[in-house]
Amino acid sequence: MPGTASTLDSRATTTNYLQCEVVQSPEGSDYDSDSDSNTSQATLEDTGVYAQFGHPLQRVLRVGSTNGEGHFEGLLPVSRSSSLASNSSWSSSSSVVYDIDYEKLIDDLLEENPTFDSESPDMVLIEPSSPEQRDSLMIKCLPRTSAELYLLLELNHSELRLDPWNPIPHLRCAVERKDDVYLCMERLHHYDQPSFKTVANYVDFFRQILEGLTFLHELKIANLSFQDPACYMVDLSSAPSTCESPADFDRTQYPVRYYVANLQHAAKFDTPAPAFARDIKECGAMIDRLLSHVPSIEPKIKSLVRAMTGGGFAAEDARKLFEAMCKSLKASTLESASLVPEQDENTPVLSIPKRSTPLVFLPPIPT
Q1: Cα–Cα distance between 37 and 203 in angstroms, integer?
Q2: Can you tell me the distance from the alpha carbon of 162 to that of 156, in angstroms, rounded to the nearest whole number?
Q3: What element of type H or E holds 279?
C-alpha cells in the first residue's frame, strides 16, 4: 500500500554543470596503479572546442567513502517509497524542481499494466506532463532483494552523486510494491542517438566511459558488461525546448552526459578479482570497434586498446593514458567529421514517442 516518501534532498541544484566548481580528486584508491593516480589534470589543451565536452576531467572532492556495507541497509523498510532528489550538478535536471506524486504514478501504471513487475525485461517511459515540461521518466522494476537494486541505491547516495565520474543513472524515487521496487529514473537515450558527427564526439564518449569505469573500480564494483554497447545511455537534456526528438539534437552545440545503465551482473569484490581485468578488456574491445569510425585518431588510440585488451592494465592507467593522448590532438582533428556508422540491426532504437502517447515500453537492455 502507498506510504509517505522520504525526501533526501528537497530540491535539485540550480548550478549548470559546465560552471561547476571542481577540485583535484583525493589521492589514494583501492585500484590505483601508483600513489598519485587520482590526480587529474585538464583533459585537452585550450583548443577552443573544449566546451563541447560534458564535464571536466577534474573531479568534485568526495565527501565520504562507501567502504563497508551499511549505506542502504534498512533504507527501503523505513518507508514504502524513497525520493532521491539528487543535488549533483551533473543531474540532467539541474535547473528543474520535480513535483510528481510517484506513489500515484506507480499505482496508475500498474492499473494500466498489471503485468509490469520485476520479471518484465522492459523499462517503461513516462511521457512529459506537457510539451513545455522536462519531467519524462524511465521506470525499471527490480526484486526487492536484488543486488542490482542495492548497487543503484548506493551509487545514488548524495555523497557519491557529487562525483562527476559517477556513471549511474539518476534515481528520482524508489517505490515499493510487495516484493518489487519501482525505480523512477531520469530520461535517457541510447548512447549513439543521434549519431556521432565529429571526432570530438567519440573522444568525449571514450573519456566519460573510462572515467566511469575508474569510478566503479575505485568502489570495488566490477563485472559491468562493458562489451555490450546497449548498456550505455546518454542524457540529452541540455537541448533547447525546440528540440522535439533525439534526431534534432546536435552534440557539437550542446554537452551530453553518458551513463552505464545495466548493472544486472555487477557486484562488489573485497579483493582484486578477474572481473576487474575483464571489464578493462571489454571496454578496450568496445573502443576498438568504434575506432573505425574515426580513422584520423585510430593509430594513436590503438596503442591504448592493445594495453587494455592485453591485460595487466588498471582502469586508472587506461584513463590517464587516454588523457595524455588527447592532449596532443589538434583542434582541427577534433572538429573533423567522423564516418557514418552502419545501423546495427541488433541495436535497440530508443526514440521519443509522440506526446499523445502517455507511456510506452522501451526495448530491454540485452544481457
Answers
A1: 21
A2: 9
A3: helix 274-290
Report the chain's terminal Cα–Cα distance, integer Å.
Answer: 32
pLDDT at 317: 96
What is the number of other CB atoms lying within 10 angstroms of the CB of residue 322? 23
- Residue bearing cell 521519443: 352
User: How do strand 81-83 and strand 5-7 relate by DSSP bridges?
Assistant: parallel
Amino acid letter at 333?
A: T
More confident residue, 19 or 360: 360
H-only helix segments in 12-144: 75-78, 102-112
Q: Residue 323 carries which side chain, given as an amino acid letter?
A: E
The residue with greater pLDDT, 331 or 18, is 331
Q: How far apart are CA 350 and CA 229, in angstroms?
A: 13
Going by the DSSP 8-state scheme, the letter that residue 230 receives in this structure is G
Model confidence band, residue 15 (pLDDT cutoffs 50, 70, 90): very low
Q: Does residue 194 have a cis bond before it (omega within 30 degrees)?
A: yes
Q: Which residue has the cell 517505490?
A: 175
Q: Which of 18, 171, 158 is nearest to 95 (CA)?
A: 18
Residue 195 makes CB contacts below 8 A (sequence gap 6+) with 340, 341
pLDDT band at 98 (very low <50, low <70, confident <90, very high): low
Q: Which residues is 81 bridged to in the sheet?
A: 5, 175
Spatial CB neighbours of 224, under 8 Å, sequence gap ≥ 6: 213, 216, 231, 260, 263, 265, 266, 279, 282
Distance CA 367, CA 209 (A): 19
Euclidean distance between CA atoms 242 and 255, whole angstroms: 16
Structure confidence at residue 26 as a pLDDT band (50, 70, 90): very low
d(CA 144, CA 319): 35
Q: Which has more confidence, 93 or 211?
A: 211
From 9, 12, 195, 192, select the one nearest 98 (Cα to Cα).
12
For residue 30, pLDDT beyond 70: no
What is the average pLDDT value for the chain, to the nearest integer?
74
Residues contacting 94, CB < 8 A, separation 6+: 12, 13, 14, 15, 16, 17
